[in-house]
Amino acid sequence: MRSYILRRILAMIPTLFLASIVAFVIIQLPPGDFATAYVAGLAANGDIVSQEALESLRADYGLNEPVAVQYFKWMGGILTRGDYGISFEHREPVSALIWERIWLTMWLSLVSVLLTWLIAFPIGIYSAVRQYSAGDYIFTLIGFFGVSIPAFLVALVLMYLQFKYFGKVASGLFSDEFVAAAWSWARIQDLLAHLWLPALILGLGGTAELIRILRANLLDELRKPYVITARAKGLPEWKAILKYPVRMALNPFVSTLGWILPSLISGSIILSQVMNLPTTGPLLLRSLQSQDMYLAGSMILVLSVATVIGTLVSDILLALLDPRIRYQ
Amino acid sequence: MNTSPLLEISGLKTHFFLDEGTVKAVEGADLMVQHGTTVGIVGESGCGKSVTAYSILQLVESPGKIVAGKILWQRPEATGGDLLDLAALKPNSREIHAIRGGEIAMIFQEPLTSLSPIHTIGDQIVEAIRLHRPVSQEEARRQAVQMLQRVGIPRPEERLDNYPFQLSGGMRQRAMIAMALSCHPSLLIADEPTTALDVTTQAQILELMSELQNDFGMSILLITHNLGVVAEMCDQVVVMYLGQVVEQADTVTLFNDPKHPYTQALMRSIPKIGQRRRGRLDPIKGMVPDPYNRPHGCCFHPRCDKFVPGLCDQQEPPLRKLKSGGMVRCVLYGE
Amino acid sequence: MTTEAPQSIPTPRVEAPREVEAQVFVAPQWKLVWWKFRKHKMAMVSGVILILIYLVALFADFLAPFDPGLTNSTYLYVPPQSIHADFGEGKPGVYVYGVTSTVDPVALRREFTIDPSQVIPLKFWGRGWEYKLLGIFKTNLHLFGPADPAQPAYLLGADRLGRDLLSRMIMGTRISMSIGLVGVFFSLVLGIFLGGISGYYGGSWDQLIQRLIDFLRSIPSIPLWMGLAAAMPLQWPAQRVYFAITVILSLIGWTSLARVVRGRFLSLREEDFVTAARLDGASQPRIIFRHMLPAFTSHIIASITLAIPGMILSETSLSFLGLGLREPVVSWGVLLQDAQDIRSIATAPWLLIPAIAVVVSVLALNFLGDGLRDAADPYTR
Amino acid sequence: MSHQTLYRFASLLILFAFLLGGCGPAATPTPAQEVPKPTEAPVKPVATEPPVPASKYSEAPALAEMVEAGELPPVEERLPANPLIVEAAEVGEYGGTWRMGMRGGTDDVSFYRILGYETLVRWTPAWDSIVPNLAESWEVSDDATEYTFHLRQGVKWSDGESFTADDIDFWFNDVVSNTDLQATMPAWLTSGGKPVKFEKVDEYTIKFTFEVPNGLFLQNLASPDARSLTNVPKHYAVQYHATYVDAAKLEAMLKEGGYTAWKDMFVAKVVQADGGGMGPYNVAGRPTLFAWMVEEPFSGNATQVTLVRNPYYWKVDQNGQQYPYIDKLVYGVYQDIPTMLLKALNGEIDFQMRHFNTLLNKAVLYDNMVTGDYHLFNLKEAGSNTNVIMLNLNHKDPVMREILQNKDFRIGLSYAINRQDIINTVYVTVGKPSQPAAQEGTPFYNEQLATQYIEYDVDKANEYLDKVLPDKNADGIRLRPDGKPMTIVIEIANAFTQQVDTGNLVAKYWNAVGILTEAKSEDRSLMYENKNNYLHDAYIWGGEGGMNPILDPRNFFPNGNESGYAVGWAAWYQNPADPLAIEPPAEIKAMIDKYNEVKAETTFDGQVAKMNELLQMSADFFPCIGISTVPPSYGIAKNNMHNVPDEMINSWSYPTPAPVNPFTFFFK
After folding, report:
1. pTM over 0.90
2. Chain A interface, mutation test: which of B92, B99, B116, B161, most A Cβ atoms within 10 Å?
3. Would you tell me which residues 49-78 of chain A have a C-beta closer than 8 angstroms to some C-beta of chain C?
4. Domain C168-375 classified CATH 1.10.275.10?
5. Residue contacts between C and D (CB atoms, under 8 Å)
6. How far apart are CA A299 and CA C323, in angstroms?
7. Where in chain A are the domains?
8. Model confidence over A62-90: pLDDT tens digits?
9. Residue D648 in contact with residue D354, Cβ under 8 Å?
10. Which is the CATH superfamily of the domain at D3-232+271-378+633-667?
11. What is the C-alpha separation between B42 and B56, in angstroms, rounded?
């Protein structure tokens, strides 16, 4: 087990190295650089920036240096000093900007995953056990519904309806009085009260896939002889199903944690933008638009690391759940 | 000893209702299991012998259903000693849960797949014990160790915490038997228990089963396509063909004097020691018919070398009692 | 009587419903798949719906009563006009009422009132805008439309430039329903190739490709899209940008397909028929393409079906970010771009109708894929 | 800043004298001579300031309590000897919280326009003259080279420290002249290419001296250009300035804050030398001269920013009440427009005229006025056109360049556009067809420039186009001389929906006359990158300089890189050595010379006359194609917010609504 984890961690290193390069390349892809974006932004306000000012801005941030040099400066800072560089746009160190947001993003993703499971689990079991029944169709229809509607649209419509009929505007992750408050139990409660709706919208997008996986796995497992053994032992039907095939079908379920995280994070980018959530999403979008290189690169990198770790955790969890993996 | 049979199946019909049509997997099974005896069911693949066994425990899954017949079960004294028609029970009723594992236990062909791969052996045996007996976890565990020891598993304490994939095939089947017998059932249904094992292990397992039968005084319903096993283990043999019992007899009679043409053909199709090595076996001619389209009349008639036109293909012969005590379903043995 | 050697009657593993197989042995695989697929009623219904949707895509210009790009300054945001019918003698048959509009200079919009005195008859096989049917025949025949093509009839309302939403939605079917196919095609090629290598050869190839998949999956897809989309050369025409976007989508999409393929390869590699072929001295490509690939074609088809909805939804997401397709290209994502502001939801909710098209097709594809997947492996029960 | 901005304000000043006397659309221009000339700007303060006895000053109840508790000096001591009296239209009451929405990132303008406009001098609300602010009075030499300002005595920063000439001295010598912070002197501080000289005469007197006359300096001071001048509290700023902090300590500070260069820290904590940036709003309690000071600061993570009243604010109303009336400003930080709009609809925004106030959103804001308890006010836009289509006359492809430089080709394209249809479709009938031109009613209005080639006439269009590209292929597409089909890609910033719609319609019209046209909406920075290197065929941007083309002549001749139709020529004008520079033809050079003549004029009349000559030349050259006059926009204000004018001019140079004195707004 220990060597398994060790091997997995070692395998992470090249992945992360590649991720850092790609993170950096992504931001270099669009034509122009932060200076262009900044000037274009000012121009939209009516301000005019001269060519010289543009050049001095480039010089300030070393944007005229070769890409490789910029990359190694950035990577060097991260590896040696934990310095992620500075955000050009905010004129703040990247690390000051991203951690709270990453923390909230992880919260949102976690709650979404839990909600996804909560919805997908009973539906998946039901629709496998009662395959092709009316209930199977109805529940999977509900489950698939979430994946069919673009999340941002659902969010917009829900926000409008909430305004229209309840006179409330769902926005952000905290009530006004908690925005600036220190972390406390009350603040966490407030957070959860704001979190559930976006988490639900986000989670709905993943339920269909999970229902499908659970259903397919369970259908396979239900046909396995050990289920008959369990019945032959005298176990009541639901107990026989829950203890054996469901428990087996759970394994791939856990392994989904690895891939559901990146999709949730991507999904949360747009949703957060619409629902005004202070997660990494809007900051990332904004930094990509303004080509705020180190900010965008660092966020992509950190999110990549998070997903790689998420995959690792799910694999370890899987090993804990499944002795066949553990003992190999 | 009680003279009434432990289990008596009469006129059992189990059908599968599929979109493609109805499969009459069991279409008239009659058999009897006496206390302390071993009854074998033999037949080709698809003859309905497994479904018959599954029917006893109401384990036939949808779209399969018992549509007719009786399965009379003599309950042991401890649970009332009354006669119960298992076929009339609902598959999810409390009685059948009590009977499954408690009074009638079952073991299967593939011990690896028949045991949950992610639960320890101990977990699965303890669960079985505690399902039927009001004992504590510790007591159940102690009994499980005892059981494992009884079925000949060395270092049972350790083995209890092993997973099935950590055991060898023979050990797994022993564990399976231990689990089945942990509640001292009166009947053990063994569904091809040795098919997946190598020959030496087969012999050991069969021997173990005989031993345990003597110890526990239980009956065994042995389902197999292996006539050798039947010869070795059984007191009575039931031959099934296409969902019907075509012949029942005590083992010696059956092997010496098979009555039904199918049984006779079966006997000819297996090699015997002492036969000339180059001599060809005599396979049964033709194919097992399509289960959706059972032949009219005697279902064996298209393959039968004693086929009587106008008779065999017209009406289904009933199962008749023979003077020897056996029974046969063939017009040749009329009146 | 113990003289017989323990000889068995050959038989496969016994399970209760196995008996069916006796006759099923002889049916070809596609037939078995079809039998199993039939049982999934929802999948059957979905299949029919999808055939209809693709027919709409094929004959979109014939079905669309108006040119989807035609703007009309007097019908900005006109609400859907309801259809009336009156088949009496000298009566107009099916018709809508005309509307009169005034500009509200403060609210900056047009206000519409239904004018019952103005009857605009609709008719089947009407003449309208000119197009090439199936890209070949030049015609102006349409399934239905106002009897006088110059008269407006907005059955699903109009957008901010007075374009007919119904026509745009019908025309949008083409791109939205094909973007998935094209994208999936690329995913498929990549997925089968890399997944196949990974699964068949195993070992260090497998490790390498698995890491690559891990790596691609760990990159949040939106920044990747944004970077790639912004990097596309300006001079590219809309069609090429569209093509490039599908490639971008498939760059991420192939990983899940590769996983499926790899999984199947891994399990098939151990199957007897593959071993037999190998012992027979069959060449590797022959083993892969002749023996293994056919064994999981149905799985691949199912996976493809399940991958298409993701592509359709990605297209809408990209459009939301302003990175996807752009006007004057018409796709459901482009149409929904109009709907994704409070103004539209509050005052022109009919602009959300294209979302229904997205939902229906995505649902249908999901169910179809599910049905196919259930049926994909006909030999397990 | 391009150095032309030097000139932009002089004329603006004049212009609004007649424009805004009556804001109604029918207002006819009053004669130019009535306009106060910039060099004649009042030497003495315009506002009548009858000395108010100290006892007559009053303050907000919360401040009075603090004075009572001894936490704050009494109001008389906090106010300068001679506080600026700003007459409120309606004398207000203290209290209330003003809620607004802003977007993260570079949206410092949201603060600046509400409270950050505290310069030496300021525009009157009507934008018709310049009045004292932090400078109590000033003298200008007759040749417009020497500007002497007398600072208001006793003005204090929000922490109680005095504001003196030292602060400005620090700003000049240690901020704008520090090459670490500002590579080159901002354009508005130079004249004839030479930087201004600064002199601190005494504690409250400062002097700026130009080598070359600069008649526009006062106007620059009254505009956003000068916003950093009065925003550097020396006593606070020195702790972040490399010159004043020893190297080791600076190093430690940088390390602690995670900064790589001290400029970053200075910009984050104090101000950006050119005045932009979030520096003034990033630190709670940072000393300021604004009406409100930061409580919860802005940061990249902030979801709201709050500001509370500055107890040392140095303005009072006619009754001696210290401004501001409103206690607190709360800015919600929004990632996206929809939530902000919903907040506005729900009545949770008290006054705002940024971000969500698009023409498209007007209908929904209008519909919800009653539930949201707010009303709309008018913003008169100062632009010259809704859409300026800039065909790239410096195209890199020589064939394209020759075609696009052909005036007949541009005329043909202009005739091909159905402007009224665009106005009806995209602008809901508001506005009238026009080329980019100064608005009617300004002294710069040139009828030819505004109205030439605006009829929709396909025949005429084809006639002109036939002169240039007579050959067509089978599909009716005109062929270039090299035989390739003539194609034009119009680039449009995707954030501007109406320009995107216009572009698509224009593409349709041009396709109809045989020019294969595609409208391509894209991220605006991508568009800018292409434009800056003149890689585009054509692009669309809003027209500027509609009220004063002297200040922003980009659409009339290539004066800078915002003249997207001729970036190469503009680069030559700026600096012939620029690698992007292309020597312009004689016609353009003549316009450049004319503009230099405009700049050399010291009187406004002279500037107008020369500019009109230039505009006539521009009309004859026909550099870019326009669509229509700019419709008014709007903002929202809660019904209980008072002193909000019903109409304002909307411009960047006159940073609406700051000149109408938001500190006089109050709730009742």
Report:
1. no
2. B116
3. none
4. no
5. 90
6. 20
7. 94-327
8. 788 888 888 888 888 888 877 888 888 77
9. no
10. Periplasmic binding protein-like II (3.40.190.10)
11. 16
